[in-house]
Amino acid sequence: MTLPTAPALPNPIDLWQLTLQWQPDAATQAQFQRLYEVILAGNQRMNLTRITEPLDFWEKHLWDSLRGLFSPILQPVLAQRASQAITVADLGTGGGFPGLPGAIAFPEWQWLLMDSTRKKIQFVAEAIAELELGNVQTACDRAEQFVRRPGPKPNFHLVTLRAVGAADLCASYALPMLAPRGVAILYRGRWSAEEEASLQDPLSHWGAEILGVDAFKTPMTEGDRHCIYLQKID
C-alpha cells in the first residue's frame, strides 16, 4: 500500500489524560499516525470515511473509538478478567473502527474485525498487515450467520458495534457472540428512553441486562455520545 503524505495528528496529552485517564506512548502515537495515513490511502480507492482532517480524525475516530473501551462502567469487568487474555469482536467494523484503534491501544487483547462488505474487510486486512498488528484477525461475515457456523460457538469477552444500526438490532447481533458475563458495547450518538425500551426483547431472549449507560461529550466539538453496556448473565 502506497501511503500518502499526511499532516501530523494532534496528540493532546492533557485531553487524553483528563478524559480517559490514559495517554499513548510514543510508539502508540506513531501507530495512530500510520493508521491515519492508511485510512487516507484507502479513501482514495473507496468511501471509508468523510472524516479526514487531522483534528476531526483524532476526535471522531481515535478518541471516540477508545472512549468506549476506557469507560468507568467497563473497568470493573476488565479488572475481574485481569488474568485472562481478553477477546474482542468488532462487528460491522467498516473502515476498522473501533477495532483498529482498540487493537493498537490494547495490544494484549485478541481482536476479530468483522464486516459483510468484502472490499471493506479486504482493506482492513491490508491495514492490519501495514500496521503489523499481530493481535487482529478478520472475517467477511454477518454476525447472525457467524454464530451458526459449525464448530465451537463464539465466546468473546467483549463485542463492539459502532454505527451499525438500530439498538435492538445491534443487541441481537452482539449478545449471542458473548461469553457468560461478557459485555457488548453499543456506540451511539444520542440515546432515548424509546431506544432503551427496545432492548428489552433481545435482553430477555439472550439472558442479558443493561450494565450501564455512559453519556459524555466529545472533547473538542462537544458532540453528544453514549455507550450502552449490555452484559450477558448466563
UniProtKB/TrEMBL annotation:
Keyword 4Fe-4S found: no
Localization terms from the record: Cytoplasm
Alphabetical list of InterPro entries matching this protein: rRNA_ssu_MeTfrase_G, SAM-dependent_MTases_sf
EC number: 2.1.1.-
GO molecular function: methyltransferase activity
Gene3D superfamilies in the cross-refs: Vaccinia Virus protein VP39
Tree of life domain: Bacteria
Pfam families: GidB
Role according to the record: Specifically methylates the N7 position of a guanine in 16S rRNA.
Protein name, per record: Ribosomal RNA small subunit methyltransferase G
